[in-house]
Design a protein that fits this description.
Shape: elongated
Strand content: under 5%
Distance between the termini: 81 Å
Helix content: over 70%
Structural class: mainly alpha
Largest sheet: none
């Protein structure tokens, strides 16, 4: 199954059969795990065509396949096409939001990621919030996966220049990490880095450096003192230190001139 032509020819003789669609889904999933996203997309596209020919009784399976196809297209950078597939899936699955909560959580998370990459941060926040709501329905509050969910939502709001709400969301993410004893996780290091950016954008340099140092300590435990991750954190800390010192120097100069 190494070539696109071979897998297409394999299923073409039973193109309206459920077995062929299942084969394509399994084959597409295998391609995706191997990083062969082009072939994965081809398999899922053909699977969609087959399910479309099977009638109304397979609408749920068709919607779930649209979700997979949208995820592959997002991975390949085909954002507008990914949105079409993902929104198609949402439209059908939202008819039974309780029964489809797990799939809807993943789809809304993907939709948020697509809008983030497109620079549409308001829409990204809306979709990330829906993903969080569905995750809470499934797993309750303060689940460990919500460390990343709150962080992603905070990041989309941060990019939309809402620093106050972004700060609250990052703080909530940190709180959940601590509740779940994930104080030394890579996810928490990212949250500290994101929160540092919130403070930096508001010229709150000391707080920004404090959070970057928290990030650096976690990265040191995970990857070692001389890792590229730790070196990058140190560079960012030094940059903010320099900016803070320069700003303070200029303020002293201005006050001195005013006094004279």
């Amino acid at each position: 199954f190494s070539s696109r032509r071979r897998h297409t020819r394999l299923v073409s003789d039973w193109s309206s059969d459920v077995c062929s669609s299942d084969l394509l889904i399994n084959l597409g999933s295998l391609y995706f795990k191997q990083g062969n996203y082009r072939n994965a997309e081809d398999c899922f596209e053909e699977g969609v065509s087959i399910y479309q020919s099977l009638g109304e009784e397979h609408r749920k399976e068709l919607s779930e396949l649209h979700s997979r196809l949208g995820h592959v297209k997002f991975t390949r950078g085909k954002f507008d096409e990914a949105l079409q597939n993902l929104e198609t899936a949402v439209e059908e699955l939202e008819k039974d939001p309780v029964g489809n909560a797990h799939e809807l959580y993943f789809i809304y998370d993907d939709l948020g990621n697509v809008y983030m990459r497109k620079g549409e941060f308001g829409k990204a926040s809306e979709k990330k919030l829906k993903a969080l709501e569905y995750h809470k329905q499934l797993f309750g509050d303060n689940h460990q996966d919500q460390v990343k969910l709150y962080s992603d939502l905070g990041l989309s709001i941060f990019y939309d220049n809402n620093f106050e709400d972004a700060e609250k969301l990052f703080e909530k993410s940190i709180q959940i990490a601590e509740l779940n004893e994930k104080e030394d996780s890579h996810e928490l290091a990212i949250v500290y880095e994101n929160l540092s950016q919130v403070y930096y954008k508001q010229n709150r340099y000391d707080e920004s450096i404090e959070k970057l140092n928290a990030c650096r300590k976690i990265l040191t435990k995970l990857y070692g003192e001389h890792s590229s991750e730790v070196m990058q954190a140190k560079i960012k800390i030094q940059k903010i230190n320099n900016e803070r010192d320069l700003k303070e120097s200029r303020e002293v100069e201005i006050r001195t001139k005013q006094f004279l």
